[in-house]
Amino acid sequence: MAGGAFADGATLKRAHLYEYKTTGYFIFSCLVAAMGGSLFGYDLGVSGGVTSMDDFLKKFFPQVYRRKQQHLHETDYCKYDNQILTLFTSSLYFGALIFTFAASHLTRSKGRKASIICGSLSFFCGAIINAFAMNIAMLIIGRLLLGVGIGFSNQAVPLYLSEMAPAKTRGRYNQLFQLTTCLGILVANLVNYGTEKIHPWGWRLSLGSATIPAILMGVGALFLPETPNSLVEQGKLEEGRKVLEKVRGTTNVDAEFADLIDASNEAKAIKHPFRNLLTRKNRPQLIIGALGIPMFQQLTGMNSILFYAPVFFQSLGFGSGTSLYSSVITSGALVVGALTSMALVDKFGRRTFFIEASIEMFCYMVALAITLALKFGQGVNLPKAISVFLVIIICLFCFAYGRSWGPLGWLVPSELFPLETRSAGQSIVVCVNMIFTALIAQCFLVSLCHLRYGIFLIFAGLVAFMGSFIFFLLPETKQVPIEEIYILFQNHWFWKKIVGDGTNDDGLDGKKGQPN
């Protein structure tokens, strides 16, 4: 791989010389690293289920429990509107967005593997505290530690997968992160469905079971190789080449290894990678990869459904067990979507999946809003046919998200940044993602209470905007080596006006590097 936006374009076009075979060593490395997604997914799935369990509410949120009992057989937009209850969910993401910057330093200086191990240890400790929580303070502390684990793993794992995978199959293997996230959500909903029947401590089992994926990832990470990119970046050239040969299944890696060295040499010249993100040559990566896509991934409204699916279905008048069962169905749709994307994204490309799914998701959100406007919030049980229709609409929405904004929201940012700003860029990706994840988690139930069906019309409008954003600003990145991505922006109808040819880059004032 080549030297990002610094090197001469003719030097960079060596991707046709890259050779690789799919080896067992490579598959093992990707599967173990991708377990980081299961931490994120398990928490996404488990938190909403636990907050709908009566035993949990009686112990920590008796006011919400009493309100729920008063409207037990009614539809009520405001049944779960409680800011402390939503803080239980969102506190994790506030912790993640803070510690992702510490993860960036560790990832760059000590490698991707070190961050993966730190993430699993922190997540394990948080799960233990949550399982034995006796008061709200213990719950929040445990959630913050879980957030630290998410901050480290979400920062390192997408980078690890993108750097280990060959360019031609990078999309497929990077999406293992999203697949394990979806599987984590599905497993969490199945666990909740079982533990909801265990009184009065079933919720403790749900929260404590988060230790299992943490242990699997932590122990597995001890046997992981560091990525060749990271080893070269740390000056371990001989070890880097050995790992590259092992994961590619061939000793003929001269072209790719030379590109890694070129990229590393340019990266070492960058003393302030966060500041470097602000330069003109990195403007597309900053706007699209670090800010736009991670923000839009949350503003689809998907995570509001994932966080509070059981709560949301109960608000629609579903029983507790039925609402958890419905959550299992929707998370199953996510898994099918992730598998679909893995199989086809390297064939049809990122843009196709983004744009087509955005159109679908817009239609589903409008249909959901219209149905709720006509039939919901009148203090009576929803007709069975309407309830089934809502579950189907939400499943279709999950399927569309699961093959587009879900996996591609992590894949595309991880492949846009050159090596010199990769860790810093991924930190901003995680930070922005967690900021909007936390805001959605904290604000969704109160917004549902006050805006009612209007909240879904807002999500529909946002989906329409983000689909247009992709259509006009994101070039296709399938099968392009990571270190040659910058060439796409130099040839893009809009971005070429900003980045020029990359040979006369500016500082931060925007006066230099202007295209002639």
Automatic annotation (TrEMBL):
**Could you identify this protein by its name?**
Major facilitator superfamily (MFS) profile domain-containing protein
Q: Determine the domain of life of the protein's source.
A: Eukaryota
Q: Which SUPFAM superfamilies match?
A: MFS general substrate transporter (SSF103473)
Q: Does the keyword Transport apply?
A: yes
GO terms for cellular component: membrane
Annotated TM spans? 23-42, 84-102, 114-134, 173-191, 203-224, 286-312, 324-345, 352-374, 386-406, 427-447, 453-474
Query: Which protein family is named in the record?
Result: Belongs to the major facilitator superfamily. Sugar transporter (TC 2.A.1.1) family.
Signal sequence bounds: none
Q: What's in the keyword line of the UniProt record?
A: Membrane, Sugar transport, Symport, Transmembrane, Transmembrane helix, Transport
Lineage in the entry?
A: Eukaryota, Viridiplantae, Streptophyta, Embryophyta, Tracheophyta
